[in-house]
Amino acid sequence: MIGYYIHHHGSGHRMRASSICAALDTPVTALSSAPIAPGAPFADSVSLARDDRGSSPENPTADDALHWAPVHDVGLRTRMSRIASWVDETHPSLLVVDVSVEVAAFVRLLGVPVVVIAMPGERTDPAHHLGYRLADHIVAAWPQAMYDPEWLREFAHKTTFVGGISRFDGRAPAGGPDSARPRILVLSGAGGTAATLADVRRCAHRHRGYRWQALGVPGAPWVNDPWPELCGADVVVSDAGQNSVAEIAAARRPAIVIAQPRPFGEQEATADALARGGLAVTVPHWPELNRWPALLDRALALGGERWVRWQTAGAATRAAAVIDSLAKRAESVT
């Protein structure tokens, strides 16, 4: 049995876990504070208490040694106790952590090997360094040729770059652009964006030569399966979250990528990698109205074929192969 800890923020961690676990041979138990969707590829699941409900957490970083471990927090105590009980009952061969330094360190202290999913950005703080140092292996869900951060090179001997993991990998294209008026899809994941439906409507009013559609941004509809809309867009406007980028890459669509503020410069690092590699047009914030035609022309000229370099094809399978191999190795020594 493998355990897989899934962070509750947004939906990207859950999507990535589902993609990887669908390709695993070893049964998986999901551990998360987020709800696990029916039909997810897990043999079992463990619901964990939230540890961020208090209004005034006390010393949550343990004097900058960790990221989130507030003292006297009932939720933290309850969730860690539940994880320890599950480990004691199940004897997992390893735990995949996406993502939490505290969970990785805690489970490793229980004697369980840990696989950590790396995150982009400047992960040089003591807590991240501890998590990566404790990890038996690190999986980076992007191509090394496109983004090879210096801080991760210390752990190169135990890091596998698998490419961008998309839930749409292997799915047939759902049609394509079919109008003389270019269709612009403004797409946001559950992690949040600074853009709003009002921003998109202002663009649609000013630039009537394009058809504008918004999904996931505040005030706009949410769809669980945006694949048809992705494939039908002439240009996708998106944040720089790992799942958003991987989904655009899988659809091979021209894109304008807008990095959203995230801890440790996560999205800025991804956007910089995309810009350097010539995969997408990137901007630091929602553009002024008069800039859109030039940006859209640049994205259309760039096209979407270079997205093959993000290596989404087979990425989840490559991650699963690494995890299965480590699980079998751990089982052989127990």
TrEMBL record:
It holds the Pfam family Glyco_tran_28_C. The keyword Transferase applies. GO terms for molecular function: hexosyltransferase activity. The keyword Transmembrane helix does not apply. Keywords: Transferase. Residues 233-281 form the Glycosyl transferase family 28 C-terminal domain. InterPro entries: Glyco_trans_28_C. It comes from the Bacteria. PANTHER family: GLYCOSYLTRANSFERASE, UDP-N-ACETYLGLUCOSAMINE--N-ACETYLMURAMYL-(PENTAPEPTIDE) PYROPHOSPHORYL-UNDECAPRENOL N-ACETYLGLUCOSAMINE TRANSFERASE 1. This is Glycosyltransferase. It comes from Rhodococcus opacus. The lineage of its organism: Bacteria, Bacillati, Actinomycetota, Actinomycetes, Mycobacteriales.
